[in-house]
User: Fold this.
Amino acid sequence: MQSVLLMNLWRAGLLGLTFSSPGEFVFRFPPSTPLVGGLGLRWYGLLMAVAVLVGLILTKWLAESRHLEKEPGKASERVELLALWLVVSGFLGARLYYVITHGSEFRDNPLSAFAIWQGGLVIHGGVLAGALALYFYCRATGINGWKYADVLTPGLILGQAIGRWGNFFNSEAYGAPIPPDSPWPLRVYIPPQAREPEYSQFEFFHPIFFYESVLNLALFALLMGMFWRAPKLKDGTWVWTYVVGYSLIRIPYEILRVSAVAYLPGTSIKAAYVASGLGLVIGIGMLIYMYRLRFDPDLEQLAVWLSEQAGLAPEAAQNLLERAWAIQQRHRRADLLDRVTLAMPHFPSALAPHLSLGQRELLMRQLFCRLEGRDPSEEGLAQAS
Assistant:
C-alpha cells in the first residue's frame, strides 16, 4: 500500500525530482549565420569557466587568510600565477586521461580528441597533472608546496561540484536505469540519442552528477571546517583528506555509472576503481605516516628558542628558522655539517654582531638537531655562550 501511494504521488509530480537537460548550448547562432553558424556558448564550457573563477577567488582568499606570504597581497599574486599553470596542466591532464581510457571513441576521428568543449574530462588525470605542475613550480621557486596545496583543495572540490553539472547539460555520465515503476525520487531524463544501446528502452536514469555534486559540497564543507576549527593541523592534511574523501565519493559514483565507462585494457574492471582504490590507500597511508610515524618540529617554539639563544628580534629569528627548515626539507639526507654550511650565508655576522663565527655555527648545528627531533646535548653540542 505504501509503495503504491508513493508511486501515485511521484506520477502526480508531488514527490521526487526529475532532471531534464535543456540542451548543450546556453545560446547558439543560427546555421545560416556567416562564419559562426552553428557555434555558440556551451553549458559545459561556461560551468568550467565558473568553476575555475570561483576556485581562484576562494584560494586567493584562503592564501591571504593563512598568511602564506609575509607581504600582504603577495600570496594572492602567487596564487594567480600558480593558477595559470594548474588550470592549463589540469585540463590537459584531464583530457589526456580521458582520451587514453576511451581510445575507441577517437579511432575514426582522432582530431575529435581536441574537442574539449564537447565534454570528456577525467578529474583523476587533472589532479595528477596539476600536482606535477605544482611540484615543479615549488621546486623552481622554493615555496612551501604543501601549504599552497592545502589552500587549493577547497577550491578544487568546490569547482568539481560546479563542473559536474556539465554532465547534466550534455546528457552524459549518467547512472543505472530506473524502471518506470520504481519509487526512487530522483532521476534524470536522457534523450534517445544519448542513451547507451543496451539501455535504449529506458528513459530515466540515476542522476549521479547530482549525487556527486552534493557529496562534493559536503567534502568542501568538511575542508573549510578544518581550516577554521583546526588551523594548526600539519601541512598536507587537507590534501590527503581531499584524496581520501573524493576517492570515497567516486567509488559509489562508478558503481552506478553506465555511460562512457572506461575499463582497464582486456578486463571488466573500471579504471576509476583502480584510481580511487590507490587514492584511498595512499591518502590513508600518508595521514597515518604524518600523524603517527613522522616527526614534525614545533616551529613556533623553535623560533622563540632561536630568538633567545641568538639574541635576535622575533622576525629575524623566524626568517632564519624558515630558511633552515627549507634546507632541512630539501637536504634531509645530507650531513649535518653540510646543512650548516648551506645555512650560514643566512646567518651573517651583521645579523648577530655579538656572536662569533663559531658561536653562530654551533647554534645552527643545535637548530638542525632540533629540527630532526634530536637533543643537541646528546650529540655533544653545548649551549652557545
Notes: The chain has a mean pLDDT of 89. Strands lie at 17-20, 25-28, 40-42, 186-189, 204-205.
